[in-house]
């Protein structure tokens, strides 16, 4: 059973999505909140496994809410919900520790599968994520897509060819089991590779590894 919270400023979204998800035997909606500040207050008491967090909310938005949750309850994972593909906020939320994002109008089955993926250590990045992020980065950093994806940090040279393969699959949102199946190796070996990647690239966690892969176009290798 995966215990989750739903954070959204619209009561109909909270109640509607909560009712749909509670129909699934593997999901237990243990609470709701209307913004990031209330989410932290309730999460400190309820200790959910995962929070579905809207990005745009009054008072404390989803980006700041994600930062608060990840700083204070690091074992609680955050999956962003949005009604539009806003690369700037999505990217900021991922950098604050969110494990991916979904559009609110996605089918319930897709949302449930995403919850399971994140719960088991995966990252959820819709396939059009790369283009949105690169578009935002071009606007904010003044770098064209071609040069941005080629100018890799020197730290990438520390990775073995197998670790680069694992990093690429992390950038595509695969969890350890899916990476193991793709590369025909054990999950334990994947975990070792992920740990090495995090250490060598000096990043925080596997979500940051996925962002790294997207940021530098490693998913296109």
TrEMBL record:
Annotated SMART domains: HTH_LUXR, REC
Residue span(s) of domain HTH luxR-type: 152-217
Gene3D superfamilies reported for this sequence: 3.40.50.2300
InterPro entries: CheY-like_superfamily, NreC/VraR/RcsB-like_REC, Sig_transdc_resp-reg_C-effctor, Sig_transdc_resp-reg_receiver, Tscrpt_reg_LuxR_C, WalR-like
Alphabetical keyword list: DNA-binding, Phosphoprotein, Transcription, Transcription regulation
Domain Response regulatory: 3-119
Signal peptide positions (record): none
Coiled coil: none
4-aspartylphosphate modifications at: 54
Statement: the UniProt record of this protein carries the keyword Phosphoprotein: yes
Subcellular localization(s) per the UniProt record: Cytoplasm
Record protein name field: Response regulator transcription factor
Organism: Heyndrickxia vini
